[in-house]
Structures are given as C-alpha cells and as structure tokens.
Amino acid sequence: MSKAPRTFMPAFMDAQTLAYTLSLSIGTINAWVERGLLPKPLETGGKRLWSWRAVEEAMERLCEAGSEEAAIAAITEAVKKRHAPP
After folding, report:
1. Partner residues linked to 13 by β-bridges
2. Please, which residues have CB within 8 angstroms of residue 17's CB and are 6 or more apart in sequence?
3. Residues near 39 by Cβ (< 8 Å), separated by ≥ 6?
4. How many CA atoms lie within 13 Å of 49's alpha carbon, on the beta-carbon side?
5. Exposed/middle/buried for 55, CB within 10 Å: 0-12, 13-18, 19+?
6. Three-class SS string for the chain?
7. What is the model's pTM?
8. C-alpha distances in angstroms, 79 versus 19, 30, 45, 56, 63?
C-alpha cells in the first residue's frame, strides 16, 4: 500500500525534501545557500534542516525583488532582523 500524499508542509525539511518541494537539485539548493538566495540550514545531529517558513519567505523575496542582487539584499536584511536582539 502506498503512502497518502502529504497534505501539509513540515516545519523543517532535509535537503532531499527541500529539493523535491522546490523542484530543484540538491546541488542547486547548496549553490543558492552559498549565494545567499536561500537561508542556511540548521545543523543538528549531523543533519541539515531548513525551516520551511524561512525558505518560503526567501522565495517570496526572490520573486518580488526582480534581480538576484536585490533578493540577496532583502533576504540578508530579513535574516538580520530575525536574529537581532529585541
């Protein structure tokens, strides 16, 4: 019996699941992280996990920015704000 399709997005996902969800290769995921287009993953227990919320926000900024440079600037600013002390 096959598994039923997932009807929700998990809060965190590994590289393989993220690549599948975004229709990208794992190599592209890694390259986009290096270029600042996607957030860096959390690393725990030897596993890299991405927050779906952070990825979704990064993808929205990428679509809205109009250029890669503008997207990187917007994503970088959002990450700084998220990690800034209150």
Report:
1. 50
2. 10
3. 33, 50, 51, 54, 55, 58, 75, 79
4. 11
5. buried
6. CCCCCCCCCCCEECHHHHHHHHCCCHHHHHHHHHHCCCCCCEEECCEEEEEHHHHHHHHHHHHHHCCHHHHHHHHHHHHHHHHCCC
7. 0.69
8. 21, 18, 23, 13, 17
Task: Give all domains of the chain, ordered by start, each with its CATH number.
Answer: 12-83 (1.10.1660)
pLDDT digits (tens, 9 = 90+) for 7-29: 678 899 999 999 998 888 999 99
d(CA 44, CA 26) in angstroms, rounded, equals 19
**Strand 12-13 to 42-44 pairing:** unpaired
Query: Of 53, 32, 51, nearest to 43 (Cα)?
Result: 51
